[in-house]
């Protein structure tokens, strides 16, 4: 922790990709009188000619913990704590403005000046500072973020644009936007897994071909700026330079089906009836109360119908699906692409032998198959189920109903009222629910 009397202060300055950025006078003053500066390598290239000759530079690289250790070291070792002597000097100075100037110079010398991209509060480094050093003071000088700049170049309103950052983040929020049929999506990319090409290919794989893509590269840099309008098929084959961002616009809206017809699913060869039927599927999802849940485990997914319906209706969910049959992997791929539900994690093998340690813990579990291991399966589920979570089983036999109810109560679940359903000429089904 910094010494008593020393305030941790950051001056955070947003940059475009311009090699000669326009900065407001107060930002230039902070640079002129600063001592310690920080930013990415690209930021250093842009501002290096503006820095004082004795400037100390801290690269922002991963792991960020190392960067913040260096920040703490500066604040701990600074010889300029806020002192009553400085306050008195400013008060007694014959020129009030001169006293204010001395205080401003002092403040900048005792601060770390950080350069970031665009608006540092827009998925930016100012948010990281607020998280890692919540007691720090921040003076902010933002500029337009890259997606604002791209929208300006395209002359499109962006007040209704849905923003997704894929910069070092998983696909989840992007998948959610696609499933919800968002018509205008702005995306912050990275140069690894989430490039314009990989984004376009993912959209094509899951049937979201109603979008056009506009990619902006090196926005704000007159010598390098490039804006390209193209189809997803074209984007999937191209390589773009970094930094870049993109905007997707839909030409039309594709319908979302509530209750996917059973006959549209690819099923196990020779076993067309082995699928959770649409009415039962929807009632099971209702029992799982998925609006209130975050992570669903689907054990014994077979065709993937429950997982896919859940993802389609509740795209905020993180879904992990288990199936013992090797054929399930291909069925899940075919059906999730057919119905536009990316992001489902499908694991093949006996659930009782799966390593669950690195999986997100569920607050809802659907048991579609238990292979005669229901009692031990409930024990294992209870060990990972979050407080307030629930388990739902569709039972077609009196034996499994009794086993579920007895074991659930013995290990601490609370049974909820069950639902007895008969559909056409199929066997009666009991939808049983237990909560923790």
How would you sum up this structure, described in words?
With 436 residues, the protein is α/β, with parallel strands linked by helices. The protein has helices at residues 25-33, 41-47, 64-77, 84-92, 96-109, 125-132, 146-154, 172-179, 196-205, 232-235, 278-288, 305-313, 327-338, 374-384, 398-410; strands spanning 9-15, 36-39, 56-59, 112-117, 137-141, 162-165, 184-188, 211-217, 226-231, 244-250, 295-299, 318-323, 345-348, 364-367, 390-395, 414-421, 429-435. The strands form 3 sheets. It has a 7-stranded mixed beta sheet, with helices on both faces.
Note the main attributes of this structure.
Cobalt-precorrin-4 Transmethylase, domain 1, 34% helix, alpha/beta, 436 residues, 15 helices, Methyltransferase, Cobalt-precorrin-4 Transmethylase, Domain 2, five-stranded parallel β-sheet, Rossmann fold
